[in-house]
Amino acid sequence: MEYLLEVTDWGQHKVPNHTYIVDGKGHLAGYIKQGTTEEIWFKTPMKQWSKARRKFKKVLDKSC
Known about the structure:
The chain has no helices and five strands. The chain is mainly beta. It has one domain (2-59). The chain has a five-stranded antiparallel β-sheet, with no helix packed on it. The chain is globular and about 35 Å long.
């Protein structure tokens, strides 16, 4: 699993940047809401999730 912290600058819009959990195939398996450490897992990975038009930073520590 890979943990990706979103660092997208949304300008004047108030959009939270969460930490996303991506499996080895690039599918979204879960996420961690901004300001928390609780992992939220999906029953089945989201296959149509895309990193397009966003910026991410790889995170080694899950407690972002």
